Amino acid sequence: MMRSANPALSDNAFRSAGVAFGSEAMTIDGAVHKTGISLLVLLFAAAFVWNGGLGAATPLAVMGGAIGGLVLALVTVFKKTWAPITTPLYAAAQGLFLGGISAMYEARYPGIVINAVGLTMGTLAALLLAYRSGLIRATENFKLGVFAATGAIGLVYLVSIGLGFFGIQIPLIHGSGIVGIGFSLFVVAIAALNLVMDFDFIENAAGRAPKYMEWYAAFGLLVTLVWLYIEILRLLAKLQGRDRR
């Protein structure tokens, strides 16, 4: 049985898409190419916001990108055949969001963004190499552990958001103390390990899922990469905040 902690690449995602063979089937190269295109769209949108292309409208674009990205993600999950259209749009929306968020972090912690981007891309490359060489194997126990940890992190964040409406924060985990940094390190590690599960899931689906699922696979990887980048950004901010004490 295939399992992924990434909800976009869940066990039912490819199963519900049906089975295709030959030239109409999804390929790994196709998924890689679609992921590359999506990343370029995201980076272009992020760079546009980063360079002040939207001026005073930047805060609205960031909020619109966040909300639009969520809506497009839900549409893509529930209407997978639309992935060739919604995935690039999702990438653009996330680019607007990340460009604005990155600019805010950079203003407070100069140099943090280039480090976060480098660590995210380095983590992607390292884990892909480790997976392809067999150093890391997505066994069922591995998948179960990452799935459980991802679910636990999601629950903590949901509770944190809920308490935030009442002006309450979960103590320590959001601060720059030892507990806060340790929590961020744990979340970064789990986000990174989700990449391994995504690689494994796409490899297993190649040759069987319909061609349009290459775009859906790119969407799933993008979801994980955006999460990983944000968590690395938060971790670096906590580390720099600790240094300034």
Helix percentage range: over 70%
What is the H/E string? HHHHHHHH
How far apart are the first and last residues' alpha carbons, in Å? 49 Å
**Domain module count:** 1
DSSP strand count: 0
Average of pLDDT: 87
Give Rg in angstroms: 18 Å
Structure overview:
With 245 residues, the protein is mainly α. It has one domain. 74% of the residues lie in helices and 0% in strands. The chain has eight helices and no strands. Helix 5 crosses helix 7. It is globular and about 50 Å long. The mean pLDDT is 87.
List keywords for this structure.
245 residues; mainly alpha; globular
Topology at a glance:
Layout (H helix, E strand, L loop, with lengths): L10 H5 L12 H23 L7 H21 L4 H26 L3 H22 L6 H25 L13 H28 L7 H31 L2
Helix pairs in contact: 2-4, 2-8, 3-4, 4-8, 5-7, 5-8, 6-7, 7-8
Q: What's the quick description here?
A:
The protein is an all-alpha fold and 245 residues long. The protein has helices at 11-15, 28-50, 58-78, 83-108, 112-133, 140-164, 178-205, 213-243.
